[in-house]
Predict the structure.
Amino acid sequence: MKKWSSLLSTVWLGISTHKLRSFLTMLGIVIGVGAVIILMSIGKGATAQILANIQSMGSDLITIRPGASFGFGGVRGAGGSTQTLTIEDAEAIAEDVPYISAVAPSYSSNLQLVVGSENTNSQVTGTTPEYMAVNNLEIASGSFFTEYDYQRGAKVAVLGSSVKETLFGDDDPIGQQMRMGTIIVRVVGVLESKEVMMGGPDDAIFIPLTAMQQTVAQPKTAQGQSVVSSVSLTVSDEKQTDNVIADITSLLRTRHRLAPSADDDFNIMSTAEIAKTISETAGTMTLLLGAIAAISLLVGGIGVMNIMLVSVLERTREIGIRKALGAREHDIWIQFLIEAAFLTLSGGIIGVIIGWLVAYFVNSMGLMTTVVTADIVILAVVVSVSIGLFFGFYPAWNASRLNPIEALRSE
Amino acid sequence: MIKLEDITKVYPMGKRELEVLKGITMTIKQGELVAIMGPSGSGKTTLLNLIGCLDKPTSGHYQLEGREVSRLSGGELAKIRGQKIGFIFQTFNLLSRLTALANVELGMTYAGGVDRKRALEALASVGLSERVKHRPVELSGGEQQRVAIARALVKNPTLFLADEPTGQLDSHSGEEIISILTSLHAEQGITVLLVTHDANIASHCQRIIHLKDGEITAGESS
């Protein structure tokens, strides 16, 4: 204990003698660690936000689109570009595959919408009433169209929040009429905003699929079945997601009469899978950001080495005196090593605090979502101490190897 | 106490070699007060450094308190320096950032641990009780050298090595330092070896060893 306290006071002496120099050395580490914390927290925050968006679509959602699956190798049609998925497929899935709570086929097309002098072009999705529950949509005012609307092909529409904003402003659109392509529809509901990225339900309009078929010429397959652009469904038991996907795959392959060697002419994605892919990608991005910030930490480490070398040179005589008084090489080595580690640890701790505060304010001012996790903090502190030990090693070794006689003679 | 046998020390000087000590043989007994005199470049300081275990001889044998130390490792030599040997230098070699007290405590850091009470006692014994909180720049040369003596004294060394301890002091302060050393020798029986070229200082010693060109010319035995 006594030994440590005298060692620490020795180290403190070395650091406190040149306060400005120690501070500047520390600053390099402060900036490095701070940058790592801030960038990593931004990366983690972005990941968390994207995942939250996906979760808002419903974690049990599975979407089937026509066309080959996304991937590399070979020439493939873009997803949705082929016309292989039909309403009958959706019905067969609902009937034959277990653990499915609801199925909603949909057919989308971009149509011109006109209300008075306002007009916009928007994606119109014809679907079934189940679509709302399947896609986790919520109604802000009015209601979604009903099974009855669907059965009779009622020309009613539910607006996404952005579309409503564009066409009606602050007016209440419920009950109002609007022109949609060649037909007139009546607005029955407005959706709650999802606040997700572009292309979400905020920018869309939903009408019964039966009404859609009267508006646009819905393509048909050679067998005369109505083509849909996607089928979304929810599983009743999330543990069965993989089984459900497998069952749907084999059912659709049979229905589409695909040879065993042929690729699927549809692709199935579950939100769980998308979330996994995105969080992997985002994790890589976060790591990349961290690595860029780590470069400044490296530069800070070189600064520490620089200063320690100068410090050893300057204190040659002190080292000689200590040696004459009985200090072993080991004692001198430890002294300078601890001094370097102390500088970087203090810098690291200050950097964590500053990085954390900046991340906190960026988040609370709503500029960006940031998440500071314990592992980033621990990593930053451990790395900063390691930098001290690594870059302090050579200067400390230099100091310990000094010949006491020559050291005493130096000025 | 100290037994040197045919000690040589050769320094490489570029391509040539400089033979600083050419076969020194001498004995110093426990409790002696010995002066080493000689002109500049005669090897006085080199000899003192060897005796003080700061350096190793190129050849020859050196026994300190009956133990052969000429071939010990650096770590073991450091241990001997820490426990047995008190150095006093011409230029004092105090740490300017530390107070007198902290400088004295530094003497104990590598010799078993700091004991503030002992440090204060050591400063009192050299008459500096009033100046423990002063830094070297606030002290006169004589006072600084007394702090250095306290620093050496505090770990109870068996051997005091003083390299021109009065070289940078006026004659009055020099006399003070010598009287402290002689009284330490008389009262505590510490073996004192001092290098000087001041015959007046050397006259206080029991024995004078003369060194010239790396060889002893007089006084190798008492």
Q: What stands out?
A: The radius of gyration of chain A is 33 Å.
